[in-house]
From TrEMBL:
Comp. bias regions, Basic and acidic residues: 167-177
Gene3D superfamilies referenced in this protein's UniProt entry, alphabetically: Cdc37, Hsp90 binding domain
PANTHER family given in the database record: CDC37-RELATED, HSP90 CO-CHAPERONE CDC37
Cross-referenced SMART domains: CDC37_C, CDC37_M, CDC37_N
UniProt-recorded name of the protein: Hsp90 chaperone protein kinase-targeting subunit
The species this protein was found in: Malassezia sympodialis (strain ATCC 42132)
Main location: cytoplasm
Length: 493
């Protein structure tokens, strides 16, 4: 009997065959593929965020429903006084906390209090205040909200089921598992070193990543475009960008530093709180450690692109986070714990080894970027430029620049905001402001003028690679807008 292989499971695997992609002659093909990959990863991240929101809302509704049901029953039996006592109790509890949310956001009691205050303001309840109809009005309103919650729970379950069904038809790195592979790591118990013998071991240097100091294993600057055409470069996801943006442990050092100064530890310039924030972030985003995610390669490439664009501080931060993930993976199963324990060790020797590796790697990236910029300038001979031009004569290019950073608290109003999260909106506005402030001052002045000629004049003075990144950032931040001047006839016969 000859068995047949079922290949249908591969029908939903999205492949990227360079030969099947057709792009405009003026668009670099490898850049287009990289942008496409980045778009896929960003959409996947947004789906994860949406799923997390739905699951959190479902859990909250499940917890609130029995509390509201019990209060509704008690109010029906004992009257409106019960309802008033519960509102007073919840309000007093929140006031005792200084009218602030809990460490993880609004507590369950805060959510219930908000709902009860909302019921108090409903027209039928306000109209019944001071009358014998108040008991019935409160009970009716609470029952109505219970029905709405039940309906919303059904909608959430349906949407989650649709997402599960859609995910089941896709093969992504998140669904990959390592099969037919097992490993065993035997850990040798370290022998304690007596204090009186410490001087005799001064020639032994402990390294976090033994291969990191060897020339053959040291991470090198990303290859040039010509060297990487045949390799798929992992795309930087929003999670990676957030990780890279965390404060650096060596922010006090100049960007030109190729190694730590001799008095680095005695001067106490190592920011341990930065390591703590990185540790907490990795704990909440363990996908950064998945080999399929390609965090190290993606962040090193982002470091190179940022350096090419003149964003030197961001480039070094990306380098630091890229090597941090690499070290954690090299240290084995408990690599994350081992790495951060050694980083925050009081003697700081392990931190010196790691940070010197970061500085050396960033220096190589900076040198490679500088050489490539000079080569591009020689080849272009000042002719090649990036300019913003509309292909359609009826299209107008305009610029919508942010007025400043977002406020601490944002209130969403109007139609279509029911599915928006205020915190996410604030994060988006903050990213938009950060992108705008990352531009050079002369370019920000050109944008503020909202004059296309002035913007193109500044773009024309930039290296092509930097101008390309700037245009991408303009689009990402929603600063670059295209509008049509055509008058559309939307009348109907």
């Amino acid at each position: 009997m000859v068995g047949k292989l079922n290949y249908s499971k591969w029908d939903n695997l999205e492949l990227s065959d360079d030969s099947d992609i057709e792009v405009h002659p003026n668009v670099d093909k490898s850049s287009f593929i990289r942008w496409k990959q980045r778009d896929i990863h960003e959409k996947r991240e947004m789906r994860k965020i949406r799923r997390s929101q739905l699951e959190a809302e479902h859990r909250t509704n499940e917890a609130v429903t029995p509390l509201l049901t019990a209060l509704c029953k008690q109010t029906d039996e004992e009257g409106a006084a019960t309802y008033s006592r519960e509102v007073s109790r919840l309000a007093a509890g929140r006031q005792a906390r200084g009218n602030k949310d809990g460490p993880d956001g609004p507590t369950l009691e805060d959510i219930l209090l908000s709902l009860l205050l909302q019921i108090n303001e409903e027209p039928n309840v306000k109209k019944a205040h001071g009358t014998s109809d108040l008991d019935a009005a409160l009970t009716t309103s609470m029952k109505s909200h219970l029905i709405k919650i039940e309906k919303r729970q059904s909608e959430i379950s349906s949407e989650l089921a649709e997402m599960d069904e859609e995910d089941a038809h896709k093969i992504t790195s998140d669904s990959l598992r390592d099969g037919w592979n097992s490993g065993h790591v035997s850990k040798e118990k370290p022998s304690p070193i007596p204090e009186n013998k410490a001087a005799k071991t001064s020639q032994h240097i402990e390294t976090l990543n033994p291969g990191a100091l060897a020339g053959s294993a040291a991470p090198s600057a990303p290859p040039s475009k010509d060297d990487s055409d045949d390799e798929e470069v992992p795309s930087v996801t929003p999670t990676m960008k957030s990780f890279a943006s965390l404060p650096s442990s060596i922010a006090s050092l100049p960007l030109s530093a190729e190694s730590l100064p001799a008095d680095f530890l005695s001067s106490k310039r190592l920011d341990l709180s930065a390591f703590e924030k990185m540790f907490q972030f990795i704990g909440s985003h363990k996908e950064l450690l998945h080999p399929q995610y390609g965090t190290t390669d993606a962040l090193l490439m982002q470091a190179f692109e940022s350096q090419m664009a003149g964003q030197k501080a961001l480039a070094r931060m990306c380098t630091e986070k890229a090597l941090l993930i690499q070290y954690c993976l090299k240290l084995g199963r408990d690599g994350v714990s081992l790495f951060f324990q050694r980083m925050m060790n009081t003697d700081g020797k392990a931190a010196v080894l790691f940070l010197n590796d970061v500085l050396a790697t960033y220096t190589r990236i900076a040198q490679r970027a500088k050489a490539l910029r000079e080569q591009q300038q020689e080849n272009s001979e000042g002719v090649e430029q990036i300019q913003l031009m509309a292909q359609d004569p009826g299209t107008v290019i305009s610029f919508d620049i942010p007025e400043g950073p977002p406020p601490e608290k944002i209130r969403l109003e109007g139609e279509g905001v029911e599915h928006l999260d205020a915190n996410e909106v604030r994060e988006w506005l903050q990213r938009r402001w950060d992108i705008y402030m990352s531009f050079d001052e002369d370019f920000r002045e050109a944008l503020a003028s909202k004059n296309l000629d002035k913007v193109n004049e500044v773009l024309g003075r930039m290296p092509v690679s930097k101008a390309e990144v700037i245009v991408q950032d303009l689009d990402r931040a929603g600063i670059l807008n295209f509008s049509s001047t055509e008058v559309r006839d939307e009348t109907h016969a």
